[in-house]
Amino acid sequence: MDFLNAIVALANYVLIPGIAYGSQLAIGALGVTLVYGILRFSNFAHGDTMAFGTMIVILMTWWLQSAGVSLGPLPTALVALPVGILGCIGLVLLTDRLVYRFYREQKAKPVILVIVSMGVMFIMNGIVRFIIGPDDQSFADGERFIISARDFKNMTGLEEGLGIRTTQLITVITAIIVVALLFWFLNKTRAGKSMRAYSDNEDLALLSGINPERVVMLTWIIVATLATIAGVLYGLDKSFKPFTYFQLLLPIFASAVVGGIGSPIGAIAGGFVIAFSEVTITYAWKKVLGYLMPESLEPSGLVQLMSTDYKFAVSFVILLIVLLFKPTGLFRGQAT
Amino acid sequence: MTDTVRNTLLFAVVFGLIILSGFFQGWNNAMFILNMGLISAIMALGVNLQWGFAGLFNVGVMGFVALGGLAAVLVGMPATPGAFAAGGPGVILALLLGAATVVAAVFTMRRMAPGRNRGLAITAVLIVGFFAFRGILDPSVELIESVNPAQTGYLGGLNPGTDETYKQNGWIMLIAWPVGGLLAAGAAWLIGKVALGLRSDYLAIATLGIAEIIIAILKNEDWLTRGVKNVVGIPRPVPYEIDLQNSAAFVDRAASMGFDPVEGSTILVKILYAILFTIVLLIILWLSHRALNSPWGRMLRAIRDNEIAAEAMGKDVTKRHLQVFILGSAVCGIAGAMMTTLDSQLTPGTYQPLRFTFLIWVMVIVGGSGSNLGAILGGFLIWFLWVQVEPIGLFAMNILTSGMAEDSALRAHLIESAAQMRLLTMGLIMILVLRFSPRGLIPEK
User: Fold this and answer.
1) What's the gap in Å between the CA of A335 and the closest CA on chain B?
2) What is the pTM of this model?
3) What is the value of ipTM here, to two decimals?
4) Hey, is the C-beta of A129 within 8 angstroms of any chain B C-beta?
């Protein structure tokens, strides 16, 4: 019984939140990694791109709610999602046309593009704060739980409850669909193959007649879609705040680099590595250990390795370890 | 128009703007802009040293600035009576143990042959070390934090005065500034040792992370900094307004110059700060100017422009990078200590990367990377805009929306959001400069 309780507690506090957070990071990191693979720079504006897409979804959700539209148990934001994606694609393509294209034609060094993306980050951050304000916004509605902790306890008679929130399930399902679609697109379609070719060897791709501007446009469209989805999932699961989205940049970069920047599979693996490390290191293990250990050995403290405020430190340390020992990441990314 | 005339004109315009704001918004405000402008200029010099001279992409400026602020607390505040006796030795022992663990892990890595055994040995060393570190640190920290938690609850600093008299030792802050530089330099050495071999954008991500970690430490380690409870009442190297107002001689002087004592004293204090800051700025400017034009500076630029060629000429690229990374970070640390002195408080919650890292980058880019005068000009100009965009934006919004109905929700929202115009404007300036004048206002020669 104690063993079962330990497993349930572990699943409730570590596994499920870790899987949900990992999926969100993975989708975010896929965006960063695609920009890096095709456009060859680290996009500092990615967190704010996510915030922009999410903002449109939130505004749309509010409008739908006021119009009485509802999906029943599912959050209304899912209806608003396509609009947010379209809006985000529009903004990103406009940015590319007005800002990035100039440097691409000049063949500017990647570090210049990174600095330019810092400027874009300021502008996007400013737009989001200007429109929706710097405060926390909650836009999740519908059924909160699939199984609440209390129901679970009643059902199984265990001491520990296992709560699964609707948003967590939606996150995981969406992530699976998105990743499957993306890989199908990259591996099976002509456009996806041309993107991979361009990423592998630009000159050869140009020689075989691939239109670079088309590849870049496709990349931005996919990146904006991924960014909006990642942002909405994170916002539904936690809450939306422009500054938090800016701060997500660090774990997202860490995921992309740990997995091997430029490699889509790596970005997914990296997302889960970072998410699980953050959750396990900042989780207080007292409960789980309490069930597993004999009473005399029960831990007196919280057995929390680090306080939750140090979660950035976790992603950072993993990032450093990987960079020092395996600079190309877990899955061979581009390391030049 | 020669360069000198052009540069003088540019500086004249910026100072003209500050003086103009003095006429419209009061001299107190203008002096505030000037003082923070001086500090921003020093930070920009530090970043310019790293980016402009050596091409190092450091986006962890905020962390070094915050470390400077920590130095202002550790040097300027009085020791909390009984706190060190309670937990000081334990904390020091724990920190030494932590350092020893890292050294042992590095030693193991260097000595053992690569393979699974090495990995296991390193992991074992780190895990044992971590638990020993926490085992000693936690109880000591608890002891320190339980000493008068409402007022202090931290170790305090090195100020020789007591709780009542420490503010008389304002001179100690002048020591705190270089100490802030040293703290930042120490951190930069550690980071540089690990991260400088990396590609430029990996270094950026690494420094971004380090800055967040430093802020997290300042926020959470209450025994060191009181965390989010903030340290207030840091002494200052200039007289207090209230003492000036109580001195008959000062009141007479102020009256003869047409100021009332309250306004006169606040302005005088700010002028004294401005003089101190200007001295520091001039020293750092002189030093970096000399460095830029020395063989060392030319070597740095050669490395920046072509790393491979410089390496082929026998230059030690990694070592030069480490040097300049430490120096630039130290400059940011000094500026951070000065800023905390000016505020007389350390508030870890207010450090935000957009304000303390990326804004400094805008200053360097707009001023002209690689040019010291440019960095200083950028520091003043961008700081001025950062402060003034808000009132200007509000003014513009009021005019734009004047046609709308008084109770229009859109109008209320627009006016309320005008405060958020800052980031938008900064981004726009940065992108426009990068596009149309990528070498900045005062280009590198």
Assistant:
1) 8
2) 0.91
3) 0.88
4) yes
